[in-house]
Amino acid sequence: MTLGKHAHLSLVEAQVRTQDHQKLVQDNADPIEASKQKQQVSTRTVDDLFADGYPDLEKRLKHSGIPYRIYQKEVAPSLGKHELDAVTPMEARGIIGKVAQSGRPTIANDTMMYLNQFTKMSEIPAFPLRHFLHF
Questions:
Q1: In contact, 38 and 30? CB cutoff 8 Å
Q2: What gap in Å lies between CA 99 and CA 80, rounded to an integer?
Q3: Integer Cα distance of 18 and 33 in angstroms
Q4: pLDDT by residue (tens digit) across 47-86?
Q5: Which candidate, 127, 125, 94, 124, places its Cα nearest to that of 112?
Q6: How many CA atoms within 13 Å lie on the side-chain side of 2?
Q7: Which residues, including other chains, have CB under 8 Å from residue 116's CB and lie 6 or more apart?
Q8: Ordered alpha helix ranges (H), the chain
Q9: pLDDT exceeds 80 at position 109
């Protein structure tokens, strides 16, 4: 377990974090899990999840504008403001079907693929699409 990089953390901050972690351990809580839960709290909507995961996609892909465009045009209007636990697999299926019915089968396939990648990157186990889209 780390407290942070020494260049970004003063000695006083490190001591405070150490005391906080020691208190969690005394209370039989896992400091690492507490840290993960704290990070997940900021990810509440599908838009938040995309904003969290897209920078990683952007680094890995040669044409990183494609998943961004597909998300903004196809997914965000329908699901962007939804709470993560309120999204159903049928809604995702509806988006993919709507794109396919518009005569864009390749974009429908890309939409499904990017939703799949997007949810795989998510470390939020409660996100309902996570199990639906994995193949």
A1: no
A2: 16
A3: 15
A4: 888 887 788 778 888 888 888 999 999 989 988 888 877 7
A5: 94
A6: 5
A7: 133, 134, 135
A8: 11-26, 31-41, 46-60, 65-70, 76-79, 89-101, 105-121, 129-133
A9: yes
